[in-house]
Amino acid sequence: MGLDLPQFVVVGGQSSGKSSVLENLVGREFLPRGSGIVTRRPLILQLIQTNEDKDYAIFTHDPKKKHFDFNEVREEIKHETDRLTGTNKGISSEPIILRIFSPNVIPLTLVDTPGITRVPVGDQPPDIEVQIREMVKSYVTPKNALILAVHPANQDLATSDAINLALATDPQGDRTLGVITKLDLMDHGTNAVELLSGKTFKLKHGFIGVINRSQRDLTNNKTVHQAIEDEKEFFNNRMVYSPVKHRCGRQKLAVKCNQILTQHVKQVLPGLKRESIQKLRAAEAELEELGEPLEGNVKDKKWALMQVLNNFTSIYSRAIDGSRSDVVVQELHGGARIRYIFEDGFKKQLNDFSGIEGFSTKDFRTVIRNAAGPRPALFIPDGAFEVLIKQQITRLKGPSMRAAELVKKELLRIVSSVNVPEFERFPLLRERVIEVAETVLDECAEPAYNMISNLIECELAYINTSHPDFIGSMHGTLLKDEVVVDPQKKNPPPPPKKSTDSGFFSSIFGGKKKVEKKVKVDSSGDAVFDAESIDQYIAAYESTDLSERENIQIALLKKLLNSYYDIAKKNIQDNVTKAIWHFLVTQSRESISRAVITEVYSSADTKKLLQESEHVVERRKVLRAEIEMLRKTNEILQKSYF
Fold it and tell me: Considering only CA atoms, which of 111, 113, 75 is closest in space to residue 92?
Protein backbone atom coordinates (compact mmCIF):
# COMPACT_ATOMS: atom_id res chain seq x y z
CA MET A 1 0.00 0.00 0.00
CA GLY A 2 2.97 2.30 0.62
CA LEU A 3 1.54 4.30 3.55
CA ASP A 4 4.03 5.15 6.28
CA LEU A 5 1.86 3.84 9.11
CA PRO A 6 3.02 3.92 12.74
CA GLN A 7 4.63 0.68 13.90
CA PHE A 8 6.86 -0.52 16.73
CA VAL A 9 10.35 -1.63 15.81
CA VAL A 10 12.02 -3.94 18.32
CA VAL A 11 15.78 -3.43 18.50
CA GLY A 12 18.43 -4.86 20.75
CA GLY A 13 21.63 -6.80 21.02
CA GLN A 14 21.94 -10.49 20.31
CA SER A 15 20.17 -12.63 22.97
CA SER A 16 18.73 -9.55 24.68
CA GLY A 17 15.23 -11.10 24.81
CA LYS A 18 13.59 -9.33 21.84
CA SER A 19 11.74 -12.42 20.62
CA SER A 20 10.40 -13.17 24.11
CA VAL A 21 9.03 -9.63 24.39
CA LEU A 22 7.16 -10.12 21.12
CA GLU A 23 5.72 -13.45 22.23
CA ASN A 24 4.61 -11.89 25.52
CA LEU A 25 2.73 -9.17 23.63
CA VAL A 26 1.07 -11.73 21.36
CA GLY A 27 0.50 -14.35 24.02
CA ARG A 28 1.66 -17.08 21.66
CA GLU A 29 4.82 -19.09 21.07
CA PHE A 30 5.66 -18.79 17.37
CA LEU A 31 9.24 -17.50 17.01
CA PRO A 32 12.32 -19.67 16.39
CA ARG A 33 14.62 -20.12 19.38
CA GLY A 34 18.25 -21.12 19.74
CA SER A 35 21.71 -19.91 20.59
CA GLY A 36 23.55 -17.15 18.73
CA ILE A 37 21.80 -15.10 16.03
CA VAL A 38 18.35 -16.59 15.45
CA THR A 39 16.46 -13.67 13.85
CA ARG A 40 18.25 -13.35 10.50
CA ARG A 41 15.51 -11.58 8.52
CA PRO A 42 13.25 -8.75 9.69
CA LEU A 43 9.83 -10.04 10.77
CA ILE A 44 6.92 -7.62 10.33
CA LEU A 45 4.24 -8.78 12.73
CA GLN A 46 0.74 -7.35 12.28
CA LEU A 47 -1.62 -8.01 15.22
CA ILE A 48 -5.25 -7.86 14.12
CA GLN A 49 -8.04 -7.99 16.69
CA THR A 50 -11.01 -10.14 15.67
CA ASN A 51 -14.21 -11.58 17.15
CA GLU A 52 -13.35 -15.12 16.08
CA ASP A 53 -12.89 -17.87 18.65
CA LYS A 54 -9.60 -19.28 17.33
CA ASP A 55 -6.27 -17.57 16.85
CA TYR A 56 -4.62 -18.07 13.48
CA ALA A 57 -1.75 -16.66 11.39
CA ILE A 58 -1.30 -15.86 7.70
CA PHE A 59 1.96 -15.20 5.85
CA THR A 60 1.73 -12.71 2.98
CA HIS A 61 3.92 -14.94 0.80
CA ASP A 62 1.21 -17.63 1.14
CA PRO A 63 -1.99 -15.63 1.80
CA LYS A 64 -4.45 -18.46 1.13
CA LYS A 65 -3.20 -20.67 3.95
CA LYS A 66 -4.33 -20.14 7.55
CA HIS A 67 -2.06 -21.52 10.29
CA PHE A 68 -3.98 -22.50 13.41
CA ASP A 69 -0.99 -24.44 14.78
CA PHE A 70 1.64 -21.88 15.85
CA ASN A 71 4.34 -24.55 15.72
CA GLU A 72 3.76 -24.50 11.96
CA VAL A 73 4.27 -20.73 12.07
CA ARG A 74 7.65 -21.22 13.72
CA GLU A 75 8.69 -23.79 11.11
CA GLU A 76 7.54 -21.57 8.24
CA ILE A 77 9.62 -18.66 9.59
CA LYS A 78 12.64 -20.96 9.76
CA HIS A 79 11.97 -22.24 6.22
CA GLU A 80 11.56 -18.76 4.73
CA THR A 81 14.69 -17.52 6.51
CA ASP A 82 16.79 -20.44 5.28
CA ARG A 83 15.40 -20.04 1.77
CA LEU A 84 17.05 -16.64 1.37
CA THR A 85 19.96 -16.76 3.82
CA GLY A 86 21.00 -20.40 3.87
CA THR A 87 21.45 -22.50 6.98
CA ASN A 88 24.80 -21.13 8.14
CA LYS A 89 23.93 -17.86 9.96
CA GLY A 90 23.56 -15.69 6.85
CA ILE A 91 21.29 -12.59 7.00
CA SER A 92 18.93 -10.77 4.61
CA SER A 93 17.13 -7.41 4.72
CA GLU A 94 14.03 -8.75 2.92
CA PRO A 95 11.29 -9.00 5.54
CA ILE A 96 8.88 -11.81 6.36
CA ILE A 97 5.36 -10.41 6.85
CA LEU A 98 3.15 -12.30 9.33
CA ARG A 99 -0.42 -11.42 10.35
CA ILE A 100 -1.86 -12.84 13.57
CA PHE A 101 -5.61 -12.71 14.06
CA SER A 102 -6.84 -13.02 17.64
CA PRO A 103 -9.46 -11.54 20.01
CA ASN A 104 -6.79 -11.28 22.71
CA VAL A 105 -4.34 -8.86 21.06
CA ILE A 106 -4.08 -5.09 20.90
CA PRO A 107 -3.98 -3.89 17.26
CA LEU A 108 -0.30 -3.20 16.71
CA THR A 109 2.34 -3.63 14.04
CA LEU A 110 5.70 -4.77 15.37
CA VAL A 111 8.98 -5.37 13.54
CA ASP A 112 11.47 -7.86 14.96
CA THR A 113 14.95 -7.03 13.68
CA PRO A 114 18.14 -9.12 13.82
CA GLY A 115 20.12 -8.71 17.02
CA ILE A 116 23.22 -6.53 16.76
CA THR A 117 26.36 -8.67 16.77
CA ARG A 118 30.03 -7.86 16.44
CA VAL A 119 31.83 -11.10 15.58
CA PRO A 120 30.94 -12.77 12.25
CA VAL A 121 30.19 -16.49 12.38
CA GLY A 122 29.31 -19.06 9.74
CA ASP A 123 28.61 -17.48 6.35
CA GLN A 124 28.35 -13.99 7.78
CA PRO A 125 30.47 -11.30 6.09
CA PRO A 126 33.29 -9.52 7.98
CA ASP A 127 31.20 -6.34 8.22
CA ILE A 128 28.19 -8.11 9.75
CA GLU A 129 27.84 -5.49 12.49
CA VAL A 130 27.71 -2.62 9.98
CA GLN A 131 25.17 -4.45 7.82
CA ILE A 132 22.83 -5.19 10.73
CA ARG A 133 23.08 -1.64 12.08
CA GLU A 134 22.24 -0.19 8.66
CA MET A 135 19.34 -2.63 8.29
CA VAL A 136 17.93 -1.68 11.70
CA LYS A 137 18.42 2.05 10.96
CA SER A 138 16.31 1.71 7.81
CA TYR A 139 13.39 0.63 10.03
CA VAL A 140 13.82 3.07 12.94
CA THR A 141 14.64 6.21 10.94
CA PRO A 142 11.11 6.96 9.55
CA LYS A 143 9.24 9.46 11.72
CA ASN A 144 6.34 7.07 12.18
CA ALA A 145 8.56 4.30 13.56
CA LEU A 146 8.14 3.80 17.32
CA ILE A 147 11.14 2.11 18.93
CA LEU A 148 11.14 -0.62 21.57
CA ALA A 149 14.74 -0.57 22.80
CA VAL A 150 15.31 -3.94 24.55
CA HIS A 151 18.16 -4.21 27.05
CA PRO A 152 18.93 -7.04 29.55
CA ALA A 153 19.03 -5.95 33.20
CA ASN A 154 22.21 -7.91 33.91
CA GLN A 155 24.27 -5.74 31.50
CA ASP A 156 25.54 -2.19 31.86
CA LEU A 157 23.10 0.30 30.26
CA ALA A 158 26.00 2.51 29.17
CA THR A 159 26.99 -0.17 26.64
CA SER A 160 23.45 -0.79 25.38
CA ASP A 161 23.36 -1.17 21.58
CA ALA A 162 19.59 -0.69 21.58
CA ILE A 163 19.58 2.61 23.52
CA ASN A 164 22.51 4.03 21.55
CA LEU A 165 20.93 3.14 18.23
CA ALA A 166 17.53 4.51 19.27
CA LEU A 167 18.91 7.85 20.46
CA ALA A 168 20.98 8.17 17.29
CA THR A 169 17.76 8.29 15.23
CA ASP A 170 15.44 9.74 17.92
CA PRO A 171 17.59 12.19 19.94
CA GLN A 172 14.63 13.67 21.87
CA GLY A 173 13.29 10.23 22.78
CA ASP A 174 9.81 11.09 21.46
CA ARG A 175 9.47 7.72 19.76
CA THR A 176 11.45 5.44 22.10
CA LEU A 177 10.24 3.15 24.89
CA GLY A 178 12.84 1.22 26.88
CA VAL A 179 12.22 -2.44 27.79
CA ILE A 180 14.35 -4.05 30.51
CA THR A 181 14.45 -7.86 30.34
CA LYS A 182 15.96 -10.61 32.51
CA LEU A 183 15.23 -8.87 35.83
CA ASP A 184 15.22 -12.33 37.43
CA LEU A 185 18.82 -12.93 36.35
CA MET A 186 20.34 -9.93 38.14
CA ASP A 187 23.02 -10.55 40.79
CA HIS A 188 21.77 -11.26 44.31
CA GLY A 189 21.14 -8.06 46.22
CA THR A 190 20.71 -5.89 43.10
CA ASN A 191 17.59 -4.65 41.37
CA ALA A 192 16.47 -2.36 38.55
CA VAL A 193 14.25 0.00 40.55
CA GLU A 194 16.34 3.12 39.89
CA LEU A 195 16.50 2.27 36.20
CA LEU A 196 12.73 1.72 35.94
CA SER A 197 12.02 4.90 37.90
CA GLY A 198 14.17 6.95 35.53
CA LYS A 199 16.88 7.90 38.03
CA THR A 200 19.69 6.08 36.22
CA PHE A 201 18.79 7.23 32.71
CA LYS A 202 15.87 9.37 31.59
CA LEU A 203 13.73 8.49 28.62
CA LYS A 204 10.65 10.51 27.71
CA HIS A 205 8.47 7.39 27.82
CA GLY A 206 10.60 5.65 30.42
CA PHE A 207 11.33 1.91 30.84
CA ILE A 208 9.11 -1.16 31.34
CA GLY A 209 10.51 -4.23 33.12
CA VAL A 210 9.53 -7.77 32.05
CA ILE A 211 10.47 -11.35 32.89
CA ASN A 212 11.12 -13.65 29.97
CA ARG A 213 11.33 -17.42 29.86
CA SER A 214 14.85 -18.72 30.42
CA GLN A 215 16.47 -21.41 28.33
CA ARG A 216 15.63 -23.94 31.07
CA ASP A 217 11.99 -22.82 30.90
CA LEU A 218 11.99 -23.41 27.16
CA THR A 219 13.58 -26.82 27.63
CA ASN A 220 10.87 -27.68 30.16
CA ASN A 221 8.20 -26.47 27.69
CA LYS A 222 6.90 -23.69 29.92
CA THR A 223 4.07 -21.97 28.06
CA VAL A 224 3.67 -18.25 27.57
CA HIS A 225 0.64 -18.20 29.84
CA GLN A 226 2.60 -19.96 32.59
CA ALA A 227 5.43 -17.45 32.09
CA ILE A 228 2.97 -14.53 32.47
CA GLU A 229 1.66 -15.98 35.74
CA ASP A 230 5.23 -16.52 37.00
CA GLU A 231 6.04 -12.93 36.07
CA LYS A 232 3.13 -11.64 38.17
CA GLU A 233 4.27 -13.77 41.09
CA PHE A 234 7.84 -12.48 40.75
CA PHE A 235 6.85 -8.83 41.07
CA ASN A 236 4.26 -9.55 43.80
CA ASN A 237 6.86 -11.34 45.94
CA ARG A 238 9.49 -8.61 45.62
CA MET A 239 8.35 -5.57 47.53
CA VAL A 240 11.36 -3.62 46.26
CA TYR A 241 9.52 -3.21 42.93
CA SER A 242 6.34 -1.87 44.58
CA PRO A 243 7.18 1.81 43.83
CA VAL A 244 7.51 1.01 40.13
CA LYS A 245 4.83 -1.65 39.91
CA HIS A 246 3.04 0.39 37.20
CA ARG A 247 6.13 -0.18 35.07
CA CYS A 248 6.45 -3.93 35.54
CA GLY A 249 5.03 -6.79 33.53
CA ARG A 250 3.87 -7.82 30.11
CA GLN A 251 0.40 -6.30 30.56
CA LYS A 252 1.85 -2.89 31.45
CA LEU A 253 4.09 -3.08 28.39
CA ALA A 254 1.12 -3.75 26.08
CA VAL A 255 -0.89 -0.89 27.60
CA LYS A 256 2.05 1.52 27.37
CA CYS A 257 2.65 0.60 23.73
CA ASN A 258 -1.01 1.26 22.97
CA GLN A 259 -0.88 4.64 24.75
CA ILE A 260 2.22 5.73 22.83
CA LEU A 261 0.70 4.53 19.57
CA THR A 262 -2.56 6.39 20.22
CA GLN A 263 -0.71 9.58 21.10
CA HIS A 264 1.44 9.29 18.00
CA VAL A 265 -1.52 8.61 15.74
CA LYS A 266 -3.19 11.82 16.98
CA GLN A 267 -0.18 13.76 15.74
CA VAL A 268 0.20 12.08 12.36
CA LEU A 269 -3.46 11.39 11.50
CA PRO A 270 -4.05 14.49 9.31
CA GLY A 271 -0.97 13.71 7.26
CA LEU A 272 -1.95 10.04 6.96
CA LYS A 273 -5.39 11.02 5.65
CA ARG A 274 -3.86 13.24 2.95
CA GLU A 275 -1.28 10.62 2.00
CA SER A 276 -3.90 7.88 1.84
CA ILE A 277 -6.16 9.91 -0.47
CA GLN A 278 -3.22 10.83 -2.74
CA LYS A 279 -2.12 7.21 -3.03
CA LEU A 280 -5.68 6.08 -3.74
CA ARG A 281 -6.02 8.60 -6.57
CA ALA A 282 -2.64 7.61 -8.01
CA ALA A 283 -3.52 3.90 -7.92
CA GLU A 284 -6.91 4.52 -9.56
CA ALA A 285 -5.27 6.62 -12.29
CA GLU A 286 -2.69 3.92 -13.00
CA LEU A 287 -5.40 1.25 -13.14
CA GLU A 288 -7.42 3.37 -15.55
CA GLU A 289 -4.34 3.80 -17.74
CA LEU A 290 -3.82 0.03 -17.84
CA GLY A 291 -7.41 -0.37 -18.97
CA GLU A 292 -9.67 -3.38 -18.75
CA PRO A 293 -8.67 -6.76 -20.24
CA LEU A 294 -9.76 -7.19 -23.87
CA GLU A 295 -12.19 -10.06 -23.68
CA GLY A 296 -14.57 -9.09 -26.52
CA ASN A 297 -14.99 -10.56 -30.01
CA VAL A 298 -12.65 -10.09 -32.96
CA LYS A 299 -14.52 -6.97 -34.11
CA ASP A 300 -14.00 -5.28 -30.74
CA LYS A 301 -10.32 -6.20 -30.75
CA LYS A 302 -9.92 -4.87 -34.30
CA TRP A 303 -11.45 -1.58 -33.23
CA ALA A 304 -9.11 -1.40 -30.22
CA LEU A 305 -6.15 -2.21 -32.49
CA MET A 306 -7.10 0.58 -34.88
CA GLN A 307 -7.26 3.05 -31.98
CA VAL A 308 -3.74 2.09 -30.88
CA LEU A 309 -2.31 2.39 -34.40
CA ASN A 310 -3.96 5.77 -34.99
CA ASN A 311 -2.62 6.95 -31.65
CA PHE A 312 0.89 5.82 -32.61
CA THR A 313 0.96 7.60 -35.98
CA SER A 314 -0.56 10.73 -34.43
CA ILE A 315 2.06 10.90 -31.68
CA TYR A 316 4.83 10.25 -34.24
CA SER A 317 3.65 13.17 -36.40
CA ARG A 318 3.23 15.49 -33.41
CA ALA A 319 6.73 14.63 -32.18
CA ILE A 320 8.13 15.83 -35.51
CA ASP A 321 5.98 18.99 -35.55
CA GLY A 322 6.68 19.78 -31.89
CA SER A 323 3.00 19.72 -30.96
CA ARG A 324 3.15 16.86 -28.46
CA SER A 325 1.17 17.40 -25.27
CA ASP A 326 4.06 15.98 -23.21
CA VAL A 327 6.80 18.29 -24.48
CA VAL A 328 10.22 17.07 -23.32
CA VAL A 329 12.04 19.66 -21.19
CA GLN A 330 15.28 17.82 -20.40
CA GLU A 331 16.66 17.56 -23.95
CA LEU A 332 15.97 18.35 -27.61
CA HIS A 333 13.52 15.92 -29.11
CA GLY A 334 11.85 15.11 -32.42
CA GLY A 335 11.63 17.91 -34.96
CA ALA A 336 13.88 20.14 -32.84
CA ARG A 337 16.70 17.61 -33.14
CA ILE A 338 16.18 17.37 -36.91
CA ARG A 339 16.39 21.16 -37.17
CA TYR A 340 19.59 21.03 -35.11
CA ILE A 341 21.02 18.50 -37.59
CA PHE A 342 20.30 20.86 -40.50
CA GLU A 343 21.18 24.20 -38.90
CA ASP A 344 23.97 23.47 -36.44
CA GLY A 345 25.39 20.32 -38.00
CA PHE A 346 25.03 20.17 -41.76
CA LYS A 347 25.07 23.93 -42.44
CA LYS A 348 27.99 24.59 -40.12
CA GLN A 349 30.08 21.81 -41.65
CA LEU A 350 29.47 23.12 -45.17
CA ASN A 351 30.32 26.68 -44.12
CA ASP A 352 33.60 25.44 -42.67
CA PHE A 353 34.64 24.21 -46.13
CA SER A 354 36.74 26.58 -48.26
CA GLY A 355 37.00 26.68 -52.06
CA ILE A 356 40.78 26.53 -51.86
CA GLU A 357 41.11 24.12 -48.94
CA GLY A 358 43.51 21.27 -49.62
CA PHE A 359 45.37 22.98 -52.48
CA SER A 360 48.95 24.29 -52.25
CA THR A 361 50.50 27.11 -54.25
CA LYS A 362 52.33 24.49 -56.25
CA ASP A 363 48.98 22.83 -57.09
CA PHE A 364 47.57 26.14 -58.36
CA ARG A 365 50.66 26.87 -60.50
CA THR A 366 50.65 23.37 -61.96
CA VAL A 367 46.95 23.25 -62.81
CA ILE A 368 47.11 26.69 -64.48
CA ARG A 369 50.04 25.67 -66.66
CA ASN A 370 48.49 22.28 -67.48
CA ALA A 371 45.18 23.89 -68.43
CA ALA A 372 46.95 26.50 -70.59
CA GLY A 373 48.75 23.85 -72.61
CA PRO A 374 51.41 25.11 -75.02
CA ARG A 375 50.23 28.73 -74.87
CA PRO A 376 50.73 31.06 -71.91
CA ALA A 377 47.35 32.21 -70.49
CA LEU A 378 46.53 35.91 -70.27
CA PHE A 379 44.09 35.23 -67.42
CA ILE A 380 42.81 32.00 -65.86
CA PRO A 381 42.21 29.01 -68.12
CA ASP A 382 38.63 27.73 -67.77
CA GLY A 383 39.94 24.19 -67.46
CA ALA A 384 41.98 25.03 -64.36
CA PHE A 385 38.97 26.56 -62.64
CA GLU A 386 36.64 23.66 -63.51
CA VAL A 387 39.08 20.95 -62.41
CA LEU A 388 39.54 22.51 -58.98
CA ILE A 389 35.93 23.52 -58.33
CA LYS A 390 34.65 20.06 -59.25
CA GLN A 391 37.01 18.48 -56.76
CA GLN A 392 35.67 20.79 -54.07
CA ILE A 393 32.02 20.17 -54.98
CA THR A 394 32.60 16.41 -54.74
CA ARG A 395 33.61 16.92 -51.10
CA LEU A 396 30.08 18.09 -50.29
CA LYS A 397 28.62 14.63 -50.85
CA GLY A 398 29.98 13.17 -47.60
CA PRO A 399 28.37 15.72 -45.24
CA SER A 400 25.12 15.56 -47.22
CA MET A 401 24.91 11.77 -46.88
CA ARG A 402 25.75 12.00 -43.17
CA ALA A 403 22.95 14.54 -42.65
CA ALA A 404 20.50 12.10 -44.22
CA GLU A 405 21.77 9.26 -42.02
CA LEU A 406 21.44 11.39 -38.88
CA VAL A 407 17.87 12.38 -39.76
CA LYS A 408 17.02 8.73 -40.34
CA LYS A 409 18.50 7.80 -36.95
CA GLU A 410 16.49 10.56 -35.31
CA LEU A 411 13.28 9.32 -36.91
CA LEU A 412 14.09 5.82 -35.64
CA ARG A 413 14.64 7.35 -32.22
CA ILE A 414 11.23 9.03 -32.36
CA VAL A 415 9.60 5.76 -33.39
CA SER A 416 11.17 3.92 -30.46
CA SER A 417 10.23 6.62 -27.97
CA VAL A 418 6.57 7.02 -28.98
CA ASN A 419 4.79 6.56 -25.68
CA VAL A 420 1.48 4.91 -26.49
CA PRO A 421 0.01 3.72 -23.15
CA GLU A 422 -1.28 0.51 -24.74
CA PHE A 423 2.24 -0.50 -25.78
CA GLU A 424 3.05 -1.38 -22.17
CA ARG A 425 0.04 -3.68 -22.13
CA PHE A 426 0.78 -5.27 -25.52
CA PRO A 427 4.57 -5.70 -25.95
CA LEU A 428 4.20 -7.90 -29.06
CA LEU A 429 2.16 -5.16 -30.74
CA ARG A 430 4.81 -2.58 -29.90
CA GLU A 431 7.56 -4.76 -31.36
CA ARG A 432 5.57 -5.32 -34.56
CA VAL A 433 4.71 -1.64 -35.05
CA ILE A 434 8.32 -0.55 -34.51
CA GLU A 435 9.52 -3.26 -36.89
CA VAL A 436 7.15 -2.02 -39.62
CA ALA A 437 8.11 1.64 -39.01
CA GLU A 438 11.82 0.84 -39.21
CA THR A 439 11.30 -0.97 -42.52
CA VAL A 440 9.44 2.05 -43.91
CA LEU A 441 12.26 4.39 -42.87
CA ASP A 442 14.80 2.13 -44.59
CA GLU A 443 12.69 2.26 -47.76
CA CYS A 444 12.34 6.05 -47.56
CA ALA A 445 16.06 6.51 -47.02
CA GLU A 446 17.07 4.97 -50.37
CA PRO A 447 15.44 7.61 -52.61
CA ALA A 448 16.81 10.29 -50.29
CA TYR A 449 20.36 8.96 -50.74
CA ASN A 450 19.84 8.69 -54.52
CA MET A 451 18.50 12.23 -54.70
CA ILE A 452 21.51 13.57 -52.82
CA SER A 453 23.85 11.80 -55.24
CA ASN A 454 21.92 13.25 -58.18
CA LEU A 455 22.11 16.76 -56.71
CA ILE A 456 25.88 16.49 -56.43
CA GLU A 457 26.06 15.15 -60.00
CA CYS A 458 23.94 18.07 -61.22
CA GLU A 459 26.32 20.55 -59.63
CA LEU A 460 29.25 18.78 -61.26
CA ALA A 461 27.58 18.46 -64.65
CA TYR A 462 27.31 22.18 -65.34
CA ILE A 463 29.56 24.83 -63.79
CA ASN A 464 27.42 27.93 -64.22
CA THR A 465 29.95 30.74 -64.47
CA SER A 466 27.09 33.03 -65.58
CA HIS A 467 25.47 32.87 -62.17
CA PRO A 468 24.66 36.45 -61.08
CA ASP A 469 26.34 35.94 -57.70
CA PHE A 470 29.58 34.68 -59.24
CA ILE A 471 32.23 37.42 -59.23
CA GLY A 472 33.74 36.16 -62.48
CA SER A 473 30.55 36.48 -64.52
CA MET A 474 30.47 40.24 -65.26
CA HIS A 475 33.36 41.78 -63.42
CA GLY A 476 36.36 39.86 -64.67
CA THR A 477 38.31 43.01 -65.66
CA LEU A 478 37.54 44.75 -62.39
CA LEU A 479 38.58 41.66 -60.51
CA LYS A 480 41.89 41.53 -62.36
CA ASP A 481 42.55 45.18 -61.51
CA GLU A 482 41.58 44.50 -57.85
CA VAL A 483 44.08 41.70 -57.65
CA VAL A 484 46.85 43.74 -59.29
CA VAL A 485 46.42 46.83 -57.11
CA ASP A 486 45.43 45.04 -53.94
CA PRO A 487 45.90 47.73 -51.25
CA GLN A 488 46.67 45.11 -48.61
CA LYS A 489 49.85 44.16 -50.42
CA LYS A 490 52.10 46.83 -48.96
CA ASN A 491 55.29 45.13 -50.10
CA PRO A 492 54.73 43.66 -53.58
CA PRO A 493 57.39 41.22 -54.72
CA PRO A 494 60.31 42.90 -56.53
CA PRO A 495 60.50 42.45 -60.30
CA PRO A 496 62.61 39.49 -61.33
CA LYS A 497 66.19 40.17 -62.25
CA LYS A 498 67.22 39.72 -65.82
CA SER A 499 68.97 36.47 -66.32
CA THR A 500 72.44 36.41 -67.75
CA ASP A 501 71.89 32.87 -68.98
CA SER A 502 71.83 32.19 -72.67
CA GLY A 503 70.95 29.26 -74.88
CA PHE A 504 67.79 27.34 -75.78
CA PHE A 505 66.60 26.46 -72.24
CA SER A 506 67.37 29.95 -71.01
CA SER A 507 64.99 31.42 -73.56
CA ILE A 508 62.20 29.16 -72.28
CA PHE A 509 62.80 29.28 -68.51
CA GLY A 510 64.45 32.68 -68.30
CA GLY A 511 63.47 35.46 -65.91
CA LYS A 512 63.98 33.28 -62.81
CA LYS A 513 66.67 33.05 -60.25
CA LYS A 514 69.83 31.54 -61.50
CA VAL A 515 69.48 27.81 -62.01
CA GLU A 516 72.57 25.71 -61.85
CA LYS A 517 73.10 24.01 -65.19
CA LYS A 518 73.67 20.31 -65.16
CA VAL A 519 72.91 19.48 -68.80
CA LYS A 520 74.78 17.54 -71.33
CA VAL A 521 76.81 19.52 -73.95
CA ASP A 522 78.36 18.47 -77.21
CA SER A 523 81.87 19.13 -78.43
CA SER A 524 80.92 22.67 -79.53
CA GLY A 525 79.49 23.56 -76.10
CA ASP A 526 75.78 23.62 -77.04
CA ALA A 527 73.24 21.89 -74.79
CA VAL A 528 72.03 18.50 -75.82
CA PHE A 529 68.13 18.41 -76.04
CA ASP A 530 66.88 15.22 -74.43
CA ALA A 531 64.18 14.08 -71.89
CA GLU A 532 66.55 13.88 -68.97
CA SER A 533 67.56 17.51 -69.40
CA ILE A 534 63.91 18.66 -69.57
CA ASP A 535 63.04 16.85 -66.31
CA GLN A 536 65.97 18.52 -64.59
CA TYR A 537 64.93 21.99 -65.70
CA ILE A 538 61.26 21.40 -64.76
CA ALA A 539 62.27 20.28 -61.27
CA ALA A 540 64.43 23.37 -60.93
CA TYR A 541 61.62 25.58 -62.21
CA GLU A 542 59.07 24.26 -59.72
CA SER A 543 61.31 25.25 -56.82
CA THR A 544 61.58 28.89 -57.93
CA ASP A 545 59.53 31.84 -56.63
CA LEU A 546 56.29 32.85 -58.37
CA SER A 547 56.47 35.43 -61.09
CA GLU A 548 54.28 38.54 -60.95
CA ARG A 549 51.92 37.04 -63.53
CA GLU A 550 51.64 33.78 -61.55
CA ASN A 551 50.91 35.67 -58.33
CA ILE A 552 48.09 37.51 -60.07
CA GLN A 553 46.73 34.35 -61.68
CA ILE A 554 46.73 32.36 -58.43
CA ALA A 555 45.16 35.19 -56.41
CA LEU A 556 42.47 35.57 -59.06
CA LEU A 557 41.87 31.79 -59.18
CA LYS A 558 41.43 31.65 -55.39
CA LYS A 559 38.83 34.41 -55.46
CA LEU A 560 36.94 32.68 -58.24
CA LEU A 561 36.99 29.33 -56.46
CA ASN A 562 35.76 30.78 -53.17
CA SER A 563 33.03 32.76 -54.92
CA TYR A 564 31.65 29.84 -56.89
CA TYR A 565 32.05 27.40 -54.00
CA ASP A 566 29.87 29.62 -51.82
CA ILE A 567 27.17 29.40 -54.49
CA ALA A 568 27.52 25.61 -54.75
CA LYS A 569 27.36 25.20 -50.95
CA LYS A 570 24.17 27.24 -50.75
CA ASN A 571 22.63 25.19 -53.53
CA ILE A 572 23.57 21.90 -51.90
CA GLN A 573 22.52 22.97 -48.42
CA ASP A 574 19.13 24.16 -49.61
CA ASN A 575 18.37 21.30 -52.00
CA VAL A 576 19.74 18.50 -49.79
CA THR A 577 17.72 19.76 -46.82
CA LYS A 578 14.57 19.79 -48.95
CA ALA A 579 15.32 16.35 -50.37
CA ILE A 580 15.85 14.83 -46.93
CA TRP A 581 12.72 16.45 -45.55
CA HIS A 582 10.62 15.30 -48.49
CA PHE A 583 11.84 11.74 -48.90
CA LEU A 584 12.56 10.90 -45.26
CA VAL A 585 10.35 13.04 -43.05
CA THR A 586 7.23 13.76 -45.10
CA GLN A 587 7.18 10.44 -46.93
CA SER A 588 7.83 8.46 -43.74
CA ARG A 589 4.80 10.03 -42.03
CA GLU A 590 2.52 9.07 -44.88
CA SER A 591 4.12 5.67 -45.49
CA ILE A 592 4.15 4.64 -41.83
CA SER A 593 0.44 5.45 -41.54
CA ARG A 594 -0.30 3.24 -44.54
CA ALA A 595 2.10 0.48 -43.55
CA VAL A 596 0.81 -0.05 -40.01
CA ILE A 597 -2.68 -0.48 -41.45
CA THR A 598 -1.68 -2.90 -44.21
CA GLU A 599 0.98 -4.79 -42.25
CA VAL A 600 -0.42 -4.72 -38.70
CA TYR A 601 -4.15 -4.03 -38.74
CA SER A 602 -4.79 -6.39 -41.65
CA SER A 603 -2.72 -9.11 -40.02
CA ALA A 604 -4.41 -12.33 -38.95
CA ASP A 605 -2.50 -12.25 -35.65
CA THR A 606 -4.77 -9.75 -33.88
CA LYS A 607 -5.30 -12.02 -30.89
CA LYS A 608 -1.56 -12.59 -30.52
CA LEU A 609 -0.69 -8.90 -30.94
CA LEU A 610 -3.24 -7.89 -28.29
CA GLN A 611 -2.00 -10.40 -25.75
CA GLU A 612 -1.21 -8.60 -22.50
CA SER A 613 2.16 -9.03 -20.81
CA GLU A 614 2.31 -10.98 -17.56
CA HIS A 615 3.61 -7.86 -15.85
CA VAL A 616 0.47 -5.89 -16.78
CA VAL A 617 -1.86 -8.68 -15.70
CA GLU A 618 -0.10 -8.99 -12.35
CA ARG A 619 0.12 -5.24 -11.90
CA ARG A 620 -3.63 -4.89 -12.47
CA LYS A 621 -4.29 -7.46 -9.73
CA VAL A 622 -1.95 -5.65 -7.33
CA LEU A 623 -3.55 -2.28 -8.07
CA ARG A 624 -7.06 -3.59 -7.50
CA ALA A 625 -6.04 -5.09 -4.16
CA GLU A 626 -4.21 -1.88 -3.23
CA ILE A 627 -7.21 0.27 -4.14
CA GLU A 628 -9.50 -1.89 -2.04
CA MET A 629 -7.10 -1.67 0.91
CA LEU A 630 -6.70 2.10 0.54
CA ARG A 631 -10.45 2.62 0.42
CA LYS A 632 -10.86 0.65 3.64
CA THR A 633 -7.99 2.59 5.18
CA ASN A 634 -9.61 5.87 4.20
CA GLU A 635 -12.88 4.81 5.77
CA ILE A 636 -11.12 3.91 9.01
CA LEU A 637 -9.08 7.14 9.03
CA GLN A 638 -12.14 9.27 8.33
CA LYS A 639 -13.98 7.64 11.25
CA SER A 640 -11.08 8.21 13.64
CA TYR A 641 -11.84 10.89 16.24
CA PHE A 642 -8.72 11.53 18.26
Answer: 113
